[in-house]
Amino acid sequence: MGAINGKDFIDRLNQQKTEIWYNGKKIEGNISEHPAFKGIIHTKASLYDLQNEPSLTGQMTFKSPITGNPVGISYLQPKTKEDLKKRRKMIKIWAKHTNGMMGRSPDYMNTAIMSFASTENILKGKENCFPENIIALYERALEEDLSFTHTLITPQVNRAHLYFEDSKDPIAAKVIDQNEKGIVIKGARLLATQGGITDEVLVYSAPGLFDPSEAFAFSIPSDTKGLKFICRESFVGGESAFDHPLSSKYEEMDTVIVFDNVLVPWDRVFFYDNVEASNIFILQSSFYPNAIHQVITRQVVKIEFLLGIAELLVQTINVGEYQHIQEKLSEIIVGLETMKALADKSETHAEIDEWGNIRPCYIPLQAASVIFPRLYPRFCEIIQLIGASGMVTLPSEKDFHSKLRTDLDQYLQGASKDAEDRVKIFRLAWDLTMSSFGTRQIHYERYFFGDPIRLAGKLYKSYPLDGLVGKVNDFLNLKDK
Length: 481
Hints:
Elements: H1 6-15, E1 19-22, E2 25-26, H2 38-50, H3 57-60, E3 61-63, E4 70-72, H4 81-97, H5 106-118, H6 131-144, E5 148-151, E6 174-178, E7 182-193, E8 200-204, E9 216-221, E10 227-231, H7 247-250, E11 254-265, E12 269-272, H8 275-284, H9 287-317, H10 323-348, E13 351-352, E14 358-359, H11 362-387, H12 405-411, H13 419-433, H14 436-446, H15 452-462, H16 466-476
Parallel strand pairs: 1-10, 5-8
Antiparallel strand pairs: 1-2, 3-4, 6-7, 7-11, 8-9, 9-12, 10-11, 13-14
């Protein structure tokens, strides 16, 4: 099959019998037409269509080493620095199509599957580990262009450092049984973004576990019996691209996944009942370097979009002569160029790992993952400060098609734009930074790779400081105690 198009993607979703609950009701009928999912599904479909654009096919696909079919470059296992550049170019095309707003565009999880497959040897020979199933998943995903969501987080019952769950019925998803067919999972997992609207769900136990019954990893179809997706409130403001230019297209639903005695077949299990595997595989694999490389590429595009909005606001109300405005815009520019430089350095200093795959240099990627959660909320604040009261005095599309049009044209015009275009620009800035969609984006970027404080701690612990300290010791001629 190889790379699919948008219709293929939508048809597959509609044919699934996935159990999705929204606003107290189980969703029936075609998921692609449900108001809470229609926008994101059709936007995602448009990404798949780009793979088949004649002018882009060479930049979006490569020949499968298995069948020779054209397959998505986000599945390419990089062997050279040129491969990394190819991957970044493809990722950037998709990111620009969504203005960096889709955190779970298909290339993110494709990158995760590719990374696991390229380092599956870590699990070879270990108890209750089946690395061959990771390879099988990768090859299936590659050839069928599957879409994925994933879940790593357990419910936040008690976040005390030494909390151990002792409830009679599992809260966090656990293995409660195993038989000749597979393992049986019961309990819940959090924060599956786009849960229910992908072909499969990748379930992985994040490092730091102590309970072997919670130490597992697998991937199963989204419509597996006993699997249930519970949605939060939708942040789609409405279908009007005028009133809700971002949420109408890019709102990615977040879900809780409930496993009600879900049978995971043995050929779908990567490992189970193995705390060591849970703790080391994701850390020693190429997941983090490759995944952050994908994320930074998207985030650079997103900052470019924010900078464009900020400058358009400045021009629309003619405030560019003020030095505090220039300072604010330069702050975004510095952040943008910093992120771009870190991405470039990660490729320039990339190295081959022990399995013959090249990994982007991890240190600059870690630095980017620490700095962006601070940059993004600040950049949104800058847009709010530039827009000021204009961010809340926003009529709707229907107002412009009513008897109010004459008043609106007179009183809401900008220095360089008529009233309708000025309101379009300000509604975009509002949807980005102040709507429920926009504030979810801020929170999402702040915690994309976890607690920012822990990310900073990991960077500190992994940074090569000994040589720097040694130089100072030598300079001062200090002696060891």
